[in-house]
Amino acid sequence: xxxxxxxxxxxxxxxxxxxxxxxxxxxxxxxxxxxxxxxxxxxxxxxxxxxxxxxxxxxxxxxxxxxxxxxxxxxxxxxxxxxxxxxxxxxxxxxxxxxxxxxxxxxxxxxxxxxxxxxxxxxxxxxxxxxxxxxxxxxxxxxxxxxxxxxxxxxxxxxxxxxxxxxxxxxxxxxxxxxxxxxxxxxxxxxxxxxxxxxxxxxxxxxxxxxxxxxxxxxxxxxxxxxx
Length: 228
Hints:
The protein is α+β, with helices and mostly antiparallel strands. β1 (130-136) and β2 form a beta hairpin. The longest helix is centred in the N-terminal third of the chain and has 71 residues, at 28-98. The chain has a five-stranded antiparallel beta sheet, covered by helices on one side. The protein has helices at residues 2-13, 15-18, 28-98, 115-125, 158-161, 204-223, and strands spanning 130-136, 142-147, 169-171, 175-179, 187-194. The protein folds into two domains: 1-98; 111-223, 2-Layer Sandwich (Beta-Lactamase), CATH 3.30.450.40. α1 (2-13) packs antiparallel against α3 and α4 (115-125) packs antiparallel against α6.
């Protein structure tokens, strides 16, 4: 584009040779001035037009970059969602495969029967500061309890857990608490996770499913004459 300005500049320099006489009511000198002014106006108009085109191009470029960023983010979120979903499906699959045969023909080692569920809670809760507690809904006695960290102590009494009459998920300043929606033989399962600064539960529904799986496993092991 610079060659256009070069041509205009050359013509302006040669204006005295191009304009050899006056035109209309102007003498030769005034005609040269008008001619040079006209060329200058053309140069300015070309400059303004190119500047406008540049702004439009920059605006379009930003729009394309913004759209590209949005699409990239959506694609990344989609891959993350698919990966997270597959991970959850794998967890549920492993738990389902780990359930004992009710007939008693294939009983798991009692010390490892709950390992898959414990590992799932640790993975989804992103912490080992949790406990899984099975409580008799009538006597309020703890039938069985597991902890992600043996040194952690939960200051939650079973009487407090029983206050969750209508809600299967509760959170306060200290804990996330998930309850199995159903009870079997008056037994309920609770998952208690200690809250931390960056600890957020992404899928409370899956945690309640894990509580239900714990209760089901406990019941199956008990009916299979294993010390649950």
